[in-house]
Amino acid sequence: MKRFALLIFVALLLAGFVERESKTSAQDKRNSSEVSLGARLFSDERFSTPRGDLPASCNHCHLFDEDPQGLRGYTDFLARSWVSFRLQDPRRDELRNSPTLFDVARMPRLHFDGEFSSLEELVKGTLAGRPMGWLPGEEQQAFAQARSVILSDRGTDGQTAESYREQFKKIYSVEVEKLSSDETMNLIARAISEFLRTLNTKRVSPYDKFLQANNLEAEPAAGEAPAVYADRLLKQISLLAAGKRLKLSAEFDPEALKGFEIFLRTEGRESAGNCVACHTPPLFTDFSFHNTGISQTEYDRVHGEGSFAALAIPEAARAVRPSAQFRETPVRNRPGAADLGHWNFVDIKASPLRRAGESEDRVLNRMIATFKTPTLRNLAYTPPYMHTGGYGSLESALMEILRLSAMARAGRVRSADEELKKINITEADIAPLLAFLNTLNEDLRLYPSPQGRARRRLYNQTTRGNRGVDHVAGATP
């Protein structure tokens, strides 16, 4: 009798295990299908406005392996991505450079100015915004068109035999024809967001291998300030080197080590890059917002030295934010227009960036021309650099930071970040810093192509037909 009871108990355990495994397998399959759907939606240019002259998709500005010029880190080749020309808004360039999408799911605020607080918000704002050719006030038209695309699709894009309606029903158990435009867009945003959450760096760069070989911690401990972590790491490296136990390699050589030490050093009279203060490992960003003077540089190049310092910017009580005037590329015939970045979206009452005892006017003044710290991983795949796309090489970007740090110490950068003033490097430090930054690149050939050759073929067909060769600054596709 006991043996029979034991057999029943074991059978029940096995049945429960099989049931759990079956549910897990079904969930994994659904997640995989949702990611595939999101990747397909990411590449669909039918969401762009029919009133513009340039069909667009998320993929057009965030390339991976689609362009014959080479791999990209989910960015394009332009200083500022192209958008559809509209008579009401006659522009060709987007407001800013398209940032990488690697590790985007880890970022609490999205866009260089922190406009969005979730991937889903970002996707909806993009599909109904200027990147797709839509104008402010046309959001519901964009949502209605998105629903129409889902309903009319027949799965003939070379990527799947299933229509969107079939995919939505299989994954979300819904019939799209019974959904409103808003409900349909929510599901589109959900699918694309799930795809974006898979775009993570593998952290197998020469830098990562250097840390592993020497048993060095890859990130600050919980609650540890970046400067404290950096100082601890420098001491560990010094001890290993003194004991002749520091392991270098052909990919992470003495020049890269020297650059890493400059990167980590937060104080000193020379070779103190203070980079780690904002570009904190392991993703080399603090996810926060800083004014390094780049917007001022762009504005003054158009309007003359000192013009940004004299630009009239309203105080907290009078400021209407976000402001179209202060989310604009500087042009000669509009001297009051500038890009103030996070100034447009900071919550001056509840932002964690607000310091104890700080007035609303003071915090808003500090947010002038602040932009989110970009990651430094895989920079080889993401030029040009900075939110303006104004720097075609890492060397030129570093030289600009060197120049602006000196200006900040002299009080010549309006609302300059305090960390910018602490950068104390010379031109002699640029080469080792470049050597270190190059160790943060991974071989993207090892990364899977989200939709492979079918997507690449579609991209080449649409870009050749609609953008011509100038979309990559004169290069021939």
Account of the protein in words:
The chain has 477 residues and is an all-alpha fold. The protein has a domain at 29-200 and 446-472: Cytochrome c-like domain (Cytochrome Bc1 Complex, Chain D, domain 2, Orthogonal Bundle), CATH 1.10.760. It is 41% helix and 1% strand. Strands 1-2 form a two-stranded antiparallel sheet. The model is unreliable at 17-24 and 453-477 (pLDDT under 50).
Concise account of the structure shown:
It contains 16 helices and two strands. It is an all-alpha fold.
List strands and helices in order, with pairings.
Elements: H1 2-42, H2 58-61, H3 119-127, H4 139-152, H5 164-172, H6 181-196, H7 206-213, H8 226-242, H9 254-264, E1 289-290, H10 294-303, H11 307-310, H12 360-366, E2 371-372, H13 394-409, H14 418-421, H15 430-438, H16 452-466
Antiparallel strand pairs: 1-2
Helix pairs in contact: 1-5, 1-6, 3-6, 4-6, 9-15
How are the strands of the biggest sheet laid out side by side?
A: 1-2
Which segments are poorly predicted (pLDDT under 50) over 5 or more consecutive residues?
Answer: 17-24, 453-477
Strand content: under 5%
H/E topology pattern: HHHHHHHHHEHHHEHHHH
How can the largest sheet be summarized?
Answer: 2 strands, antiparallel
The CATH class of the domain at 29-200 and 446-472 turns out to be Mainly Alpha
* Number of E-state strands: 2
Global geometry: globular
| Structural classification | mainly alpha
Count of individual helical segments: 16
Oligomer: single chain
- CATH-scheme architecture of the domain at 29-200 and 446-472: Orthogonal Bundle
Helix content: 40-55%
Q: So, the CATH homologous superfamily of the domain at 29-200 and 446-472?
A: Cytochrome c-like domain
Average residue pLDDT = 90
CATH topology call of the domain at 29-200 and 446-472: Cytochrome Bc1 Complex, Chain D, domain 2
Distance between the termini: 77 Å
Rounded to the nearest angstrom, the radius of gyration is 25 Å
